Amino acid sequence: MADTVQTWGSTVPEKAVAKPNKMQKFLRQRSTIAFLMCLPLILIIVCLVIYPAFYSIYLSMLNKAQTRFIGLGNFTFLMSRDTFWQVVAQSTIFALSAVFFKALIGLVTAHLVNNLPAKGQRKWRGMLLVPWVIPLALSTLGWWWMFDPTNSAFNYTLRSLGFDGIPWLSDPYWARFSVILVNVWYGAPFFLIMYLAALKSVPEQLYEAASIDGASAWQKFIHITLPMMRNIIAITVLFSLIVTFANFDIVQIMTAGGPRNMTHMFATYAFLLGIRSGDLPLGAATSLFMFPILAVAAIFILRGVRKRGREIG
Amino acid sequence: MSVATASVPTSRAMPTGASLRRNRRWALWASYFFLILFAIFFLAPPYYMVVTALKTDGEMAKLATNPWFIYDGVTLDQFRILLYNTDFLIFFKNTIIVTVCVVAITMVVSVLAAFALGRMRFWGSSILATGIFLTYLVPDTLLFIPMFQIVKSIGLLNSYWGMVLVYPTLTVPFCTWIMIGYFQSIPKELDEAALIDGAGHMQMLLKIFIPVALPGIIAAMIFAFTVSWAAFVYPMAFLYSSDQQVLTVGTVTSLIRGDVYKWGMLMAGALLAAAPPLVIYAFLMDYYIAGLTAGATKG
Fold this sequence. Notes:
The complex is a heterodimer.
Chain A lengths: L1 H17 L3 H7 L1 H30 L13 H7 L2 H34 L2 H11 L1 H4 L2 H12 L5 H8 L11 H29 L3 H9 L4 H29 L3 H6 L11 H11 L3 H9 L2 H22 L1
Helix pairs in contact in A: 5-10, 5-12, 10-12, 12-16, 14-15
Chain B lengths: L1 H6 L1 H45 L3 H6 L14 H9 L2 H32 L5 H12 L3 H15 L5 H7 L1 H17 L3 H9 L4 H12 L1 H17 L2 H6 L8 H8 L8 H21 L1 H10 L5
Helix pairs in contact in B: 2-15, 4-15, 5-8, 5-9, 5-12, 5-14, 6-9, 9-12, 12-16, 14-15
């Protein structure tokens, strides 16, 4: 290692003296090197994110055969369809309720784990994060099997307890409930981990001071824990809102949008129109409807992360 | 309440101490109780998948016994059928190829970029860093339809090489973002010492930054691995023949033939497909969690 360092040190100045080439000088400049190092990343973002984004807007203004420009025709067509408004409603219900329960369960379990003696925490944390680690498509397959109406786990358990079996995925409202349940199951551990990390970062002295002042556990939670965690809660909720709103796997595998299109989300509806029915422009238009909502959430996340960056220093 | 404790501090000290301890013990038992309930909720599906995968088809068809347990004996038949009679191993091979390529591409691209952005300020670097974070927030379902057209025009539709091309959009932004954070946490004195010794930027990166930031690199690698292993939308939209299919979509679609659901085999497939991420998680849990939480902290 020492050798290589020395050769570097001796050759570079020599070359520079021998040939004060402008191009070489430019290439050795710090900012040029830095830019070159970023070039692959910039290429990926420009070619595979920014270009597709603009192409998507163009695509959504073509007719099905992609031969004619029809302006906002696809968007107005979608907005005239009842199914589309069902998709809007279901995506909103799905995202809001799933994120709410994920955040709630995450907060509760994080507190429970934090109550345990330090030695056992690792084990519990490791166990409770398992749903997040299994690829969602595969665990959804497992859930689908548990929801099976005739010979499956849930209905057997219900019947043996004296209840009727539930048509989990064939009744539209139970189907909505089921896909949300799976999403909560999958996403709650993520909140648990984030909140647990945030809980650990609250200085112990604050709690000690509050104890001396005679604060109850609830008062400590309201006046210390929540304010200290406010930022991370906001970031996690907004981030999860984006991911949940744009979710595809669960609905596609369990119901494929059915029964009666009641469980369709933006992503699965776009898939149905764009890929299955071969109307790419209409599918692109459906996806694009997600953009404003995602953009608003993204802006707030960015603000939160920046603020958090300043707080940590 | 605070007034009461302040006015009679000494006489109350002993009993409060004892009741506090009793309260603590109560809180602890309550915590365990509720944690067990949550653990049942979280672990029931994977448990049920394991039970199903180890049952015989005969027991499953009978409908008489409790499905949560195995009565007719444990069998590995489902795994045997899966490995010998289906394309599962092809899916597995394809997924490994795609994932290895994607992780390699991701690490090279994001380590180089993160080093430049975290250490060498240049014109537009802060805008670029913000842009990277925003691209991380773009979900795959927003752009999969224009991507379909793009992949098709390059001629990579129905080829797993198309996945190698598009997955980095899901992995690179986040990995770069967390690597910037790790690189920025390395003390400035280290690069100054290296510069005095005459090291170039590349040497500095290879001999100082990568070894020092190794935990971050491992965390980023795990993230890239799990994302490309679990990706579902892109292969679902872009791949349709089974010799090109990857595990997630292959297990969910190709193993289901007609209306007959071979649940035992399906669960065996799902478990084997989920095994690599689970094994990595079991051995590298701390890195996994570090990568998970790094996204929301300072980058």
